[in-house]
Design goal:
- The complex is a heterodimer of chains A (about 450) and B (about 180).
- Chain A has about 450 residues and is mainly beta.
- Chain A is built from 4 helices and 32 strands.
- The longest helix of chain A is centred in the first third of the chain and has 17 residues.
- The radius of gyration of chain A is 23 Å and the shape is globular.
- Chain B has a single domain, classed as 60s Ribosomal Protein L30, Chain: A.
- Chain B has a 4-stranded mixed sheet.
- In chain B, helix 1 runs antiparallel to helix 2.
- The longest helix of chain B has 21 residues.
- Classes of the chains: A mainly beta (about 450), B alpha+beta (about 180).
- The interface between A and B is large, with 41 and 32 residues.
Chain lengths: ~450, ~180
């Protein structure tokens, strides 16, 4: 697999000379900007005409790039694509000044144009973003160089740039998701690890299904994955290098079970659950030395730990009160503060990459929910409801959550879904087989 | 996997602990898995078959290899303790065998919590067997959480059978 090598081959963000369209005299109405926190009622209409093909070999890519960019933006729920059938202007030349009136007439507020050239396996893409209402470019034009097999990443990078310029948020399209791919009936389910682009493209399998595997978690740099494997007959934590698919077991004592691992923000420490004598507590382990430290010591269940982005605290799940609830403790252990106080049972807390929110699974009155709350437990909001939703993971920008949804009954199956933090945009993520336990990578470098 | 009604399991366990030389045949009749008239001639017993009292099949079907739990609980029920009494007696008699006790949960609950809950259940069964004298070195535990349901409907009828601790034998002459 050459994906990572492809990534490093991308020479990013060489600024192009900013070409100001001539005669841009229309009244400024403030910069084009959408604020996501408020919940988007009216998605912003945009147009992405097929890119200009600067070489014959680029003809296919010129359309494909525009389609991926449009799908990324449309998938956020923040934007709405205007189909090319509505276009008045035919976009043919990247350097020709945009006639804003043609795009205003079809109510486009943002316009993305681009051009692509292909020479052998080398691709060069350039693009601009226009604020149609103000009649200006939005930021500078940029160009990317890469290879043909990395073209989707180039499209995602452009979409990230467009998204950032309009929302002021970091992007998340040039990212990957590691998850458990599932086949077979409920009583004979086969599971194997897979990694894919965030949008479900480029699926690659990382393990076979000979042993049960659960809950993969990306490292902070996206190069390694922690997961739980029953290869030895007992649950053990493995660490896998995504590029080489080499893996090793993080050993734990005979007679114990270890599971629910996550990396610390430094990538050097693993926090996880270890069960001994029927009792489950939280430990950390130095991933290189294997040295472990016990952080909780109670007869109750302590599991599903997740570090804060600064590495100083850990949010986790415990039933010490009699039912599973969320708690926060120092990264070194010690006394924990309960943060969940609503009705029902809370589990699988995950600290957002921004540090402001904790996503969780909630079980109440026979339904499951994905929700978010502030780290002091206030402002709880439930984003989803179904027979079984669980296991949230954050997009790198902290604005979207992916999770597992399992359907009810004898034909019950798992799929991946995503929801934005306003709860308005819920989407199924297409995977070739069933999917569960997603973990979102950081933005790729 | 043959599933026995609870009432029959209890009876079978009670009988298995006694020394009645006819017990194999009697158990068979009670369990409803063979000769309806009861009684199998001793010379017809095939080693390793369910008629062989030292077999895994006998343990699984006649002694009962599993105990069930209430929702979100890991306390043994009276029926569960009775089944484990039978398992303990059998394991002490058949000392070639080791066992792994598998703890399971129903699908209600998160993956991580159910792994921990299954471990509690397996451990409860193990502790009980240890209290009856089964050596610790012969009993290991593992939890599968909600990963290995045997019944697949999404209601209590199935959930009740999935909340279980199963004593899986290894070793012995016929395994």
């Amino acid at each position: 697999m050459t994906f990572l090598r492809t990534a490093s081959a991308i020479v990013c963000a060489c600024a192009l000379a900013l070409v100001l369209p001539t005669g841009m005299a229309s009244a400024q109405q403030g910069p084009l900007r959408i604020t996501i926190e408020e919940g988007i009622i009216q998605p912003l209409p945009f147009a992405v005409p097929d890119f200009q093909a600067e070489t014959d070999e680029a003809a296919q890519l010129a359309g494909d790039l525009a389609r991926v960019i449009a799908a990324d933006l449309e998938g956020t729920g923040v934007f709405r694509e205007i189909p090319s059938s509505a276009f008045i202007a035919q976009y043919t030349d990247f350097e020709t000044a945009v006639q804003y009136s043609d795009w205003k007439a079809i109510n486009a507020q943002a316009l993305v144009t681009g051009a692509v050239s292909v020479s052998g396996t080398n691709v060069n893409v350039k693009f601009r973003v226009y604020d149609v209402v103000s009649g200006t470019t939005l930021g500078e034009g940029l160009q990317f160089s890469g290879t043909t097999d990395g073209w989707r990443r180039m499209a995602h990078k452009i979409a990230d740039e467009v998204y950032s310029r309009i929302t002021g948020e970091g992007g998340y399209f040039d990212s990957r998701v590691v998850y458990v791919s599932e086949t077979g009936p409920k009583d004979d389910r086969k599971k194997r690890l897979a990694v894919m682009d965030y949008d479900g493209a480029n699926v690659r399998y990382l393990t076979d299904s000979s042993a049960l595997v659960l809950a993969p978690r990306f490292s902070p740099t996206g190069d390694r994955v922690l997961y739980t494997s029953y290869e030895s007959g007992f649950p053990r934590i493995n660490v896998l290098d995504v590029g080489s698919v080499q893996q090793r077991v993080l050993e734990s004592a005979e007679g114990t079970m270890s599971f629910a691992p996550r990396f610390s923000p430094s990538g050097q420490t693993v926090v996880y659950s270890l069960t001994q004598g029927g009792n489950t507590d939280i430990y950390t382990m130095d991933i290189n030395s294997g040295q472990s430290v016990r952080l909780t010591n109670t007869p109750s269940i302590e599991t599903a730990p997740s570090f804060s982005p600064d590495g100083n605290r850990i949010v986790f799940e415990s039933d010490r009160s009699g039912s599973p609830q969320l708690y926060i403790m120092s990264a070194g252990g010690g006394e924990a503060q309960r943060i969940s106080f609503g009705e029902g049972r809370y589990g699988t807390p995950v600290w957002s990459p921004r540090g402001d929110l904790v996503a969780f699974t909630k079980q109440n009155a026979g339904r499951f929910h994905i929700g978010v709350m502030r780290t002091d437990g206030s402002e709880e909001r439930l984003l989803t409801a179904s027979f079984l939703d669980e296991g949230p993971t954050w997009a790198p920008n902290g604005r979207v959550i992916m999770f597992t949804r399992e359907t009810q009954g004898e034909d019950g199956a798992s799929s991946l879904y995503s929801v934005d933090i306003t709860g308005r945009v819920l989407r199924k993520v297409a995977t070739p087989e069933g999917g569960s336990d997603p973990s979102w990578s950081p933005l790729q470098q | 996997m043959k599933f026995l009604p609870m009432t029959v399991l209890v009876a079978a366990v009670a009988l298995s602990a006694c020394t009645n030389p006819d017990r194999f045949g009697a158990d068979d009749a009670l369990a409803g898995n063979g000769n309806p008239n009861g009684g199998v001639p001793l010379n017809s017993i095939q080693p390793g078959s369910a008629n062989d009292p030292a077999s895994t099949a006998y343990f699984n079907q006649t002694i009962g290899d599993r105990v069930l739990f209430e929702v979100d609980q890991s306390n043994l029920t009276p029926i569960g303790r009775s089944t484990l009494d039978g398992q303990a007696t059998w394991l002490l008699t058949n000392s070639d065998y080791q066992a792994v006790i598998e703890g399971h949960a129903d699908e209600q609950g998160t993956r991580e919590y159910n792994l921990a809950l299954g471990a509690r259940r397996a451990n409860a069964a193990r502790e009980y067997l240890l209290s009856k004298g089964v050596p610790a070195g012969r009993l290991r535990v593992v939890s599968y959480g909600k990963e290995r349901p045997i019944e697949i409907c999404s209601n209590e009828a199935c959930y009740a059978k999935n909340r279980r601790a199963v004593t899986v034998l290894a070793g012995g002459l016929t395994s």
